[in-house]
Amino acid sequence: MINFEVITLFPEFFAPYKKSGILKNACDDKLIDINIHNLRDFTTDKRKTVDDKPFGGGVGMVMMIEPIFKAVESIKKGKSRVILFTPRGKKYDQKTAHRLSKTDQIIMICGRYEGVDERVAKHIADEEISIGDYVLMGGEIPAMVVIESVSRLVPMVVGTDDFLKKRTKSVSAIEYPQFTRPAVYGKWAVPSVLLSGDHKRIEEWRDKNKKIL
Ligand code: SAM
Q1: Which residues contact 153 (CB under 8 A, 6 or more apart)?
Q2: What is the CATH number of the domain that holds 199?
Q3: 0.85 exceeded by the pTM?
Q4: How far away, in angstroms, is 88 Cα from ligand 1 center?
């Protein structure tokens, strides 16, 4: 059985999704399991804060490392793979779906706002996945894409193992690493240039570290 674990700020998106069609049957038949985790449940302050302003300035808010770190730590068990959805990640394809279908537990981090503190990509996620060269509002639809494409590769979800074997023969955005509070999390520190207040150097650093999609 594959366990899909979705970390999201919008758990309600997944309620009808889980209760419909083939996925519902697959869950009822214990071929897969879909667990939705509200990121705000892993915050420690009264306001359940999950985001903060980007170091070095810039528009929008960045999702903080701490609630994500805590969520992943509490969910992770066995042979797991942690995926962070980002528009700059490796383009998702059927080969990746096949690879993931051999995993026991797939933990998916759904970003929102201006994205996620870069240390999540570097130290928490095993891989970054993009579902295409366009920017969505959040990682919830990418999570659904992964759940659907991987689930249909699980024997008996849409067909027997034999059926599956036969069937299977067959520059719009600039992204740079972002960080927000705290400046140091455990052993992981934000690049000092972003704390310098020197906008020219910050721009140069971002230019050097950017990826054009
Ligand atoms: N500059 C941000 C970044 O690098 O992630 C864009 C943030 S986007 C408005 C909010 C979230 O939507 C992202 O953190 C990511 O989780 C998700 N997202 C947006 N486009 C995506 C794509 N093409 N593939 C996968 N996830 C995407």
Answers
A1: 97, 98, 101, 164, 168
A2: 1.10.1270
A3: yes
A4: 8
